[in-house]
Design a protein that fits this description.
This protein has 144 residues and is of the alpha+beta class. 41% of the residues lie in helices and 19% in strands. Strand 1 and strand 2 form a beta hairpin. The chain has a 3-stranded antiparallel sheet with strand order 4-3-5, with no helix packed on it. A two-stranded antiparallel ribbon has the order 1-2. Strands 6-7 form a two-stranded antiparallel sheet.
Length: 144
């Protein structure tokens, strides 16, 4: 018969075998932003809690990092590498409409600066050519 308690140290009271199993509690608590499992608990989170939420959906078997998918009301298991990719995905900001508009305006401004530089160069070249032609015409008039 399996033991009901585990003695870790003589000075520390024995822990139940299912102590670390979140499914032994009524609720599973997760972070609302990351959806990452925090712990098993017998107390539901207040619906106004901005950081944590709880669910009665049981965790599947497996030693993975669990993310709660609210859209389908299921837990999804991630390996350490998959969890890193997931966290990068949710923490790397995506541009808002305002950000995209500002990017477009900056790009348009850069394009206009390039066009202005090219037109300034063209104007300078034309000025040199006109000055040269005027000089040649003046010399032709004086010699002729």
């Amino acid at each position: 018969m399996a033991e009901e308690n585990v003695q870790i140290n003589e000075d520390i009271p024995a822990l139940p075998l299912n102590f670390a199993d979140p499914n032994s509690f009524v609720y599973r608590k997760y972070n609302k932003q990351t959806k990452l499992l925090v712990e098993g608990t017998d107390e539901a989170c207040d619906s106004t809690d901005k950081i944590f939420a709880t669910t009665k959906v049981a965790l599947p078997d497996g030693d993975l990092n669990w993310i709660f998918r609210e859209d389908i009301q299921m837990w999804k298991g991630y390996t350490a590498e998959q969890l890193d990719d997931y966290l990068v995905e949710i923490y790397v900001p995506t541009p808002t409409a305002t950000d995209e508009w500002q990017i477009a305006m900056i790009q348009q401004n850069a394009s206009l600066v390039q066009q202005n530089r090219a037109l300034t160069q063209t104007t300078a070249n034309l000025t040199v050519r006109v000055t040269k032609l005027e000089k040649e015409q003046m010399e032709g008039t004086n010699n002729g």
